[in-house]
């Protein structure tokens, strides 16, 4: 079947041969672009998986340059101090 198609294409003249070569080149280019896109997606997924695995350790957490400021809750034993009096007078 392929031989018949090639024979008809090449016996059809110069214009048919040029059309055949152009079609084959564009199909090859399209397949190449598709393979590059699929390989790129696979590479990104592998990189993300590797990064996630490296960041899943139980070591010391890194210190953030922007620490979260939390409000300290007063303990049950702490009392409110009167202004101007020393701490021993808090009874």
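^ Assign residues to that structure.
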């Amino acid at each position: 079947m392929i031989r018949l198609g090639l024979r008809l294409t090449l016996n059809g003249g110069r214009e048919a041969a040029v059309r055949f070569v152009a079609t084959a080149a564009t199909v090859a280019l399209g397949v190449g672009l598709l393979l590059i896109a699929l390989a790129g997606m696979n590479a990104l997924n592998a990189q993300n998986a590797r990064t996630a695995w490296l960041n899943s350790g139980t070591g010391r957490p890194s210190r953030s340059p922007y620490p979260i400021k939390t409000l300290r809750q007063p303990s049950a034993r702490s009392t409110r101090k009167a202004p101007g009096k020393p701490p021993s007078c808090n009874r």
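Helices lie at 2-11, 14-54.
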